[in-house]
Amino acid sequence: NGLDARTPLAELTGTITPSALHYVSSHGNNPPDIDPREHRLTVYGMVDRPLVFTLDELMRLPSVSRTHFIECIANAPRPEEKTLEEMHGMIACSEWTGVPLSVLLDEVGVKSGGDWVLSEGAEATKLGASMPMGKAMDDVLGAYGQNGEAIRPHNGFPLRLVVPGFQGKYHVKWLQRIKVVDRPYMTYWEKRSYSKRAASRRTGPDRMANSHEAGQGAYFMEQGPKSVITYPSGEQRLPGRGYYTIIGLAWSGSGSVRRVEVSMDGGRTWNDAKLQEPVKRIALTRFTIPWTWNGNETVLQSRCTDDKGQVQPTQAEFANFWGSSGAPHGNGIQPWKVTNDGTVLNVV
Ligand SMILES: Nc1nc2c(c(=O)[nH]1)N[C@H]1C(S)=C(S)[C@@H](COP(=O)(O)O)O[C@H]1N2
Ligand SMILES: [Mo]
């Protein structure tokens, strides 16, 4: 049912994920073997002039480089998981270079009523996803560069969509078709893995307001505010009492991280962590806070607030809202227990 690999977050420093360590979530087993000279991107549908672009033609258009994370909607901790990589490794952050999708859509001329954009990958199973035209014209990239080099085969070589802040499936790899359409589509993979039935509750956490009802279920678009302590984290061992710097990562699909608070006493008190500048929009943000461990058992947690004022929920708040069926995703607070002997455990 596909190929998956996770980002080794506990082993990384800084905020950029080396390309070779970017997590992989592919429904087909292997990346399609694409000759970049033969590859074509077709932009068609409800447009005035359908166009077919070669990679060279795309690279001659105005381009931008932007740092953004991509996170799979399934990037949520489960009680039985132990390490940071297992629990949160379906996120990575890269500098992406490419042509704004708005440039391509302006070239073809969107007809009135063309309110949605359907995209398709070139692998045998042709993953597809549809997004509102407003997002497509805003900050979406047709990316060919990742951290200063060509995108790696597993991550979409030679061309992928980067849809900042939207859940993983929108970032269609091996991009070969963009079709302007008049409504959201519920493609095979979206129906199978990325929507939720009877998502009728209209109030609650803001992330719900970012979903879109599409007949057979609801899409989830923006990833909610989230953070996780990367050091110390699951299965690591502190050598003894004394001074430590707690380090972590925070992000939000809605914008930039405004604040990260850390609790070192099981949630009784919270202190503001230092955010590493510059804080970029829809990118991993590093935070640090000093901590002196007295050698007693305790629980460490972090909580992110984004620039829209959305606050990362607890695991309990998230579960309450979604009910027992739960969504296959979650941005709940990650608690790490530090035991007397310094062992760090997942206590979700
Ligand atoms: N063509 C295509 N695009 C795809 C996928 C896929 O299977 N095929 N997987 C999606 C999913 S579910 C995620 S989470 C992201 C993962 O991107 P990555 O593999 O580069 O980390 O790509 C998305 N784009
Ligand atoms: Mo995903």
How would you characterize this protein structure?
- With 348 residues, the chain is mainly beta.
- A five-stranded mixed β-sheet has the order 4-3-12-7-8. Strands 5, 6, 9, 10 and 11 form a five-stranded antiparallel β-sheet that branches. A five-stranded antiparallel β-sheet has the order 19-18-22-23-24, with no helix packed on it.
- β14 and β15 form a beta hairpin.
- About 6% of the residues have low confidence.
- It binds ligand MTE and molybdenum atom (MO).
- The site of the ligand Nc1nc2c(c(=O)[nH]1)N[C@H]1C(S)=C(S)[C@@H](COP(=O)(O)O)O[C@H]1N2 has 19 residues, from β2.
Describe the structure using short key phrases.
binds molybdenum atom, 7 helices, about 350 residues, binds the ligand Nc1nc2c(c(=O)[nH]1)N[C@H]1C(S)=C(S)[C@@H](COP(=O)(O)O)O[C@H]1N2, five-stranded mixed beta sheet, elongated, five-stranded antiparallel beta sheet, about 35% strand, mainly beta, about 10% helix
Write a compact overview of the structure shown.
This protein has helices at 55-60, 84-88, 101-108, 133-138, 188-193, 206-209, 315-322; strands spanning 3-5, 24-26, 40-45, 51-54, 64-71, 91-100, 116-121, 128-132, 141-146, 149-150, 160-162, 175-181, 195-196, 211-213, 218-220, 226-231, 242-251, 257-263, 271-272, 274-275, 285-293, 298-306, 336-338, 344-346. The protein has 348 residues and is mainly β.
Return residue spans where pLDDT drops below 50 for at least 5 consecutive residues.
Answer: 197-217
The Rg value, from CA coordinates, equals: 21 Å
Question: What is the number of beta strands?
Answer: 24
Bound molecules: the ligand Nc1nc2c(c(=O)[nH]1)N[C@H]1C(S)=C(S)[C@@H](COP(=O)(O)O)O[C@H]1N2, molybdenum atom
Strand order of the largest sheet: 4-3-12-7-8
What structural class should be given to the helix and strand makeup? mainly beta
Distance between the termini: 27 Å
Task: Describe the largest sheet.
Answer: 5 strands, mixed
- Would you tell me the overall average pLDDT? 90
Share of helix, binned = 10-25%
User: Proportion of β residues?
Assistant: 35-45%
Shape: elongated
Instruction: Give the helix tally.
Output: 7
